[in-house]
Amino acid sequence: MLPESVSSPTVVVLACLIIYMCTLSVYRLYFSPLARFPGPKLAAVSGWYEFYYDIIQDGQYYLKVEKLHRKYGPIIRINPWELHASDPVLFSHIYSSGVKQRVEKYAWSQKGLRLIDDSHILTESHELHRLRRKPLATFFSPRNTESMEPVVWKVSQRIRSRLQKLNGSGSVMVMEDLFTVVSADLVAAFSFDDEIDLTQTDELQPLGSIYSTLQTVARVSAWLSHFSWITALINAIPPSFLMRLAPTVATNNRLYSLVKKQFESSRAVRASSSKTDDPLSDDEFTDELLSPDTKLIAHLLHSNLPPHERTPNRVCAELLTIFMATIFNIPRAMMVTTYHILANPDIKAKLCGELNALLGPGVDSPQETPVWALLNKAEYLKACVKEGLRLFFGALRGTARRNLHAPIAYRDWVIPPGTPVGMSAWMLNTDPEVYPDPLVFRPERWLPGNHKPEMDRNFASLGKGSRTCLGIHLVYVFMRHLLAAMFGPGEKPELRLFETEESDVATAVSGLSGLAKKGARGLRVVVE
Ligand code: HEM
Q1: 299-333: pLDDT as tens digits
Q2: Binding residue per annotation — 469?
Q3: What pTM, to 2 d.p., does this model score?
Q4: What ipTM did this prediction achieve?
Q5: Cα distances (angstroms) measured from residue 456 to each of 95, 392, 461, 463
Q6: pLDDT tops 80 at residue 270
Q7: Most C-beta atoms within 10 A of its C-beta, which of 85, 247, 260, 312?
Q8: Is 132's C-beta closer than 6 angstroms to any atom of ligand 1?
Q9: How far is the CA of 507 from the centre of ligand 1 (A)?
Q10: In this structure, which residue's CA is closest to atom 34 in ligand 1?
């Protein structure tokens, strides 16, 4: 007869659990369609391996994955369900934009961001994503982005006037606050009917706190992706109570309320001016229709999306996504770029020299001189932006893609249909064969004559293929304008780094997007 303790229900449950885990491990190691792909056995057996590096080690799996590639080769299994590749040729294939390549996003790591769950960025299905992205892509097309330049210029100049207020004061400015408010101003300027100028508020910090809120969201997202039940739990808590519990949620909800309010007032204006919300036919809906005054809200309401895709919740989810993508990424990218320019007097001198020569004294009166047109000729400025983006990395680990319909042949391997395959911006952007001294900020590498095609092939900060960054053209234009406002000719204060080291701004933690290490002090400058 068994002792009483052995026959207790706890032991039976434990025994079942152990048998289940052993069976699952054997299946994952020897019988799963991914069993023959190389990689550490522990990663193949359980998601806890990734959890350890992602959560306990604070977003460091991208560095571990790099080491694993060195040991196991160009394609490895990084958890029971997912492969990771390090070959840039495969990067272009997997992150393809071809119509025939119906690659889906594997949004496991982004699920549950409640307010934007219905946006195109979190849409996994290839077809639905195409439908949802189309009107947005028209709005952010190169041509329409170019027509937004006067607005981008106007908003960027606010950074200069804000800094001018402090001219000669020796004050210390927290640059992420300033970059966040101008970014918010820009999205508001092209999205809403009401003009918003957040840089005019005396206290930037509460608005800048949107930046830290989004940092927290990006950090917490790793937890949510490992434990989707946390999201379900959060969603079940009444919003009023949740806002008291978690200020991050409160700020996020305030942002959503702002978007919703603007949406409602824009809809009311349209209703009173007897414009209908009837969608246009495919033939009618082209970017010819877009005038520089067309706001994103009106554009989406008027788009040829079917009515169930133009509901308030859907449109607001898209607007909030664009708001968040801009005010999270632009300040981070600008912090990294500005830091390197200020830390390298030679680079700063070359940049200022080029801008002085190109823009001359007309810079303060853009209505007389369309200076933004001249910025296109500023090769060194463009190179600084590109190099800043390279070292910002965007998301250090890009979201994986999967082809549900066909296997992918790669060297001796056949990747089964439906298998998520990811790639790392960290590895692509720091490939020493393509970018010698990869961690050095060297704009010269992007100048005509030095710029090689492999550099574009590897450049992963803005994603690739059908899901490449929607704001890709806007990013380049806005960053050039912001740098021109800070380093171009005209009356403006001198900026000097204040107790800021590279590690205070450098992207070192992988989250929803790339983050600085915990405790980083951010970019602070003295305004002289
Ligand atoms: C420095 C600034 C930025 C960086 C580094 C960046 C980076 C990225 C990356 C890497 C992706 C691909 C994500 C994935 O594969 O899952 C992406 C997607 C996206 N970005 Fe950006 N982004 C920036 C700024 C912006 C701006 C200003 C907007 C505003 C329009 C924007 C809107 C989006 C949207 C909506 C998507 C999703 C596209 C889709 O799924 O079809 N981003 N971005």
Answers
A1: 888 888 898 898 888 998 999 899 889 988 999 99
A2: yes
A3: 0.90
A4: 0.97
A5: 14, 16, 11, 11
A6: no
A7: 85
A8: no
A9: 16
A10: 470
